[in-house]
Amino acid sequence: MSESALLALPGAVASPSGGPDAGLPWHYGDPLGEQRAASTAAAVVDRSTRFVIAVPGDERLSWLHTITSQHIASLPAGSSAENLSLDANGRVEHHFVQTDLDGVTWIDTEADRGPDLLAFLKKMVFWAKAEPRDGNELAMLSLLGPESGSPAVLSALGIDSLPTEPYAAVALPSGGFVRRMPWPTEHSFDLLVPRESLTATFTALRDAGARPAGSWAFDALRVEAVRPRIGVDTDERTIPHEARWIGGPDQYGAVHLDKGCYRGQETVARVHNLGKPPRHLVLIHLDGSADGRPETGDDITAGGRTVGRIGTIVDHHELGPIALALVKRTITPDTALVAGPCAASIDPDSIPPDDGIQAGRAAVERLRGR
After folding, report:
1. Is the backbone peptide bond immediately before 76 cis, with ω within 30 degrees of 0?
2. What is the 8-class DSSP label of residue 75?
3. H-helix or E-strand containing 294?
4. Distinct helix (H) and strand (E) counts, the chain
5. For the segment 180-194, what is each residue's pLDDT rounded down to a tens digit?
C-alpha cells in the first residue's frame, strides 16, 4: 500500500520505514498520552494500509468454510469472525478478520500478506459461486475507548449507536461498516469506510472529540492484551495453539475445534487431543535501563540457551517497555531471560492455563485402565 493520506495531517509522525506499519502515522507527538486516551476516553487510529478483499457470491460462506479454520458456514449477516489459513502441516499462513454484510464477505489482513491471500482464494474457487476480488475501495480506521459511543462521535458517523456485541457489524450511511472487536481494549471498533472519504471521516471523528492516535498506541494496547500479529509475533513454524488462536467466534478465537476437514486440521486435532504446543505466546517485561532494545525476531535466551523469539516491542504508558514473545512452554516465569541487550521476564499473568488433560490423552489412559 502507498502512504496514508493522513500522514499529511498536522503533527503526524511517520511509522518507521521497513516496519509493518510503514506508511501510517506512528504518533502525533504524544504517544503515551494517545494510549491513555484510547484506554480512558476516545481515540481514532489510522490502519488504512490493511489489505481488504471482497467476496460476493451465493456460496461465499460455505466455500470459505471448507478452506479455512473457523466455523463460518452459517455466519449470520452482520456478523464477523477471525479466521486462519493453514498450510498442510498446520502452520499459520494467514490471519484475517471477515465480516458478512449485505451479500458480501469483507476480509481484511496485513498489507504485506493481502496479495498472497487474495491469490490463494482465487485459486481455490473452482466451481463455487464466490468471486474474491481486491476490495481496497474500503480503508480501515480503529476507534478505541469508553467514550467511543458519545453523541458527538455517533453524530460524526451518522448512526444512533455502535454495535454492542463483539464481532457484530452495522452498515454506515456514507458507505462501509463499523464492527465491534474484542481487542485491543474493551471498547474497540473497526471502521471500514470508502477510501476517498478516509481523511474526512478521520477529521470528523477528531472534531467530535476522538483523539488522533498512531500505530504505536494501537500496538501498545494490543501487546498488553496479548494479541499476536502475524509475521511479527509469529514465525514460519507457528501453529494456532501457540498463538492463542484456538476457539470459535464466541471465544474470540480463529480456529473452531468442531468443524469439517480443512487444510492443516490434522495438526490442530493432534495437539488439541494428544499433545501440547511446543511454545506459547506470553507478555514479557524488558529492562528499561538497558542500553538499547531487542529487535523483532531476536532470540530470547536463558543461561545462554535459546528458549524463544521476540515479537512486537513497544513502550506502554503504564507498563513501560514490554514485548510479545513465543517461548518454550517449559520456561517458568521465574526464569532469568535475556532479549538482545535487555534482561527480560515473563509476566506470570500472561501464561495460558496448561494443566488440563486432553480428551484424546484421557481416552488412551482409560483404555489402559488408568
Report:
1. no
2. P
3. none
4. 8, 19
5. 999 999 999 999 999
Strands 177-181 and 169-171: antiparallel
Domain limits for position 206: 1-274
Give yes or no for residue 207 having a pLDDT over 60: yes
Give me the DSSP letters along 200-246: HHHHHHHHTTPEEE-HHHHHHHHHHTT---TTTT--TT--GGGGT-B
**CATH number for the domain that contains residue 349:** 2.40.30.160
| Grid cell listed for 15 | 511509522
Which residues make Cβ contacts (< 8 Å) with residue 242, sequence separation at least 6?
Answer: 234, 277, 278, 279, 280, 281, 326
**Is it true that the peptide bond before 184 is cis, omega within 30 degrees of 0?**
yes
* Residue 94 belongs to a domain: yes
Instruction: Tell me the residue type at 345.
Output: S
The per-residue pLDDT of the chain, averaged, comes to 94
pTM over 0.85: yes
Pair 196, 130 in one domain: yes
What percentage of the chain carries pLDDT values higher than 70?
Answer: 95
Q: Give the tens place of pLDDT for each residue, 6-55.
A: 999 999 999 999 999 999 999 999 999 999 999 999 999 999 999 999 99
User: How far, in Å, CA of 74 to CA of 288, rounded?
Assistant: 48
Q: Which residue has the cell 489510522?
A: 46
Per-residue pLDDT tens digits for 312-328: 999 999 999 999 999 99
User: Where is 23: in which H helix or E strand?
Assistant: none
